[in-house]
Specification:
Helices cover 85% and strands 0% of the residues. The chain has helices spanning 7-18, 21-53, 55-92, 95-120, 124-130, 135-167, 171-195, 201-221, 240-271, 276-312, 316-343, 345-353, 357-370, 374-389, 393-405, 409-418, 424-463. Helix 3 (55-92) runs antiparallel to helix 4 and helix 3 (55-92) packs parallel to helix 6 (135-167).
């Protein structure tokens, strides 16, 4: 096995470690931000098309989607661990370790995906019942959920591949692939729903087909021989020194993402006391809010890769500079998109509610509270990026655990027991949890920034 670094990859590594940091952040993160935005756009259109079927259909998709997101934490958590350790080895110049980590994580993903299918496909109904899914959602949602499971396993592989491309700085390739997903997904869903008049299961079919297009591209790109970032069966190694560093980072992220999504499922379940439409309205509000926050997630993912690369090369000053540049970008994005979404809320909510004026007012009432989280969540995303870049995934687990199980669920319990706000409580709890998450991120960010700054000064002192 011979690990080779292409001229393109070598050029990007030099740029990431020595170029203008704001240019590096924008080069890596801007396409990822657009990628995340497009992903959110097709989620929004999914919801709109589901609403064309029925109000129950849109609520069913919103509810089951949160369960699917919880399960997707398995693959996305592995991808985060892989991305951090691959970027770190890439920055350190240990190219054979890069090859081994890429190949081993891909093999682990295959084992994980097979286990998910074997366990959950035959147990779909009991699992949905265990997740407190309302019966009216289960009756129309089981076929949808099963097809989404298959799509989910495909997404496991796609997440690993995207994490590898992110470490290489191939953000534009990720963007183009995602545009292919969006076009395929929206075209098929529109035909299935508006032309053929199929039910919610057709939305899952469109998702599966669109994800298979990325899997095909991943298979082609990762099968190229003598490429440092390609898959090699000979490079797969389950030795402790290869697997343990990635899993030590991945397991807390898996728990974090699964717990975060599970918390959302719990909140959805608690909101059913206000009626099934409240769950749909909350899901729609989350989708509208995602238009603001998903670009910040793109900067978070790209920024963590840049930070881990410079950390691997022991350029700690640049890690702090990356954090500052990313923070500026995320706060600007949050402020601008929040203002746009609030100004256009009447028009946006009408898209989802159609002629149902009461449903539209419910959506608007919830989102007006959720919208103000755009700025504190921009801070939160940037601090998470710093933590991921330094491998502090246990801290990110703590942050997201607090966001759901300290700042959200208890607040909703208090609102339900001691107030009569009704469905508006769903929006209030989102606003409170987003604000408090930003406060916690500020505190932890200051502590971590100071720690890294102190380490830099100590190294400079020893060098002198």
């Amino acid at each position: 096995m011979k690990a080779q670094l292409s001229k393109k990859d070598e050029k990007f590594r030099e740029f990431a470690l020595n170029g203008s940091m704001m240019k590096v952040i924008l080069y890596v993160c801007a396409p990822l931000a657009l990628y995340q935005s497009l992903t959110q756009v097709f989620k929004v259109f999914d919801t709109m098309m589901a609403s064309h079927i029925s109000a129950t259909a849109v609520s069913s998709v919103a509810y089951i989607s949160q369960i699917q997101i919880m399960l997707s934490a398995l693959g996305s958590g592995l991808a985060v661990g892989a991305s951090i350790k691959v970027s770190e080895a890439y920055g350190a110049g240990d190219y054979e370790l890069v090859r081994r980590r890429v190949s081993t994580m891909s093999a682990l993903c295959a084992v994980l995906g097979l286990a998910v299918l074997l366990f959950l496909l035959p147990l779909s109904r009991p699992f949905l019942e265990f997740m407190k899914t309302p019966e009216e959602f289960i009756s129309i949602g089981i076929p949808y959920f099963r097809i989404e499971l298959v799509a989910l396993v495909v997404t496991f592989f796609n997440n690993i591949y995207i994490a590898i491309e992110r470490a290489r700085g191939n953000s534009r390739r990720i963007l183009w692939m995602n545009m292919g997903i969006v076009l395929t997904k929206l075209s098929l869903t529109a035909v299935f729903v508006y032309v053929l008049h199929w039910g919610v299961t057709s939305i899952a079919i469109a998702t599966l087909v669109s994800q298979l297009t990325v899997l095909a591209a991943a298979a082609v790109n990762m099968s190229k021989k003598d490429n440092l970032f390609s898959f090699s069966l000979r490079a797969v190694s389950f030795k402790r020194e290869i697997v343990a560093p990635m899993m030590n980072l991945s397991v807390p992220v898996i728990i974090e993402k699964a717990a975060f999504a599970m918390g959302k499922v719990i909140v959805n379940s608690m909101c059913t006391v206000y009626g099934p439409q409240t769950v749909g309205a909350l899901g729609i509000s989350n989708n509208i809010g995602g238009i603001t926050t998903m670009p910040q997630s793109g900067f978070q993912e790209g920024g963590s890769a840049v930070i881990s690369q410079n950390r691997g090369a022991e350029k700690y000053e640049r890690t702090l500079l990356a954090f500052k540049c990313e923070l500026v970008c995320n706060l600007i994005i949050g402020a601008v998109l929040m203002a746009v979404s609030l100004l256009g809320l009447e028009y946006i909510s009408r898209f989802f509610a159609g002629k149902d004026a009461a449903f539209q007012e419910m959506i608007k009432g919830i989102y007006r509270y959720e919208a103000w989280g755009a700025i504190p969540l921009g801070l939160n995303a940037t601090v998470l990026s710093l933590m991921y870049g330094f491998g502090k995934t246990r801290v990110t687990l703590f942050m997201n655990f607090c966001r759901i199980f300290l700042f959200r669920v208890p607040v909703l319990i208090l609102l339900q027991r001691f107030t009569d706000y009704g469905s508006e409580s769903a929006g209030i709890v989102m606003g409170v949890s987003n604000f408090l998450s930003g406060v916690l991120a500020l505190v932890l960010g200051i502590v971590t920034f100071a720690q890294v700054k102190g380490a830099v000064r100590q190294r400079c002192g020893k060098a002198a």
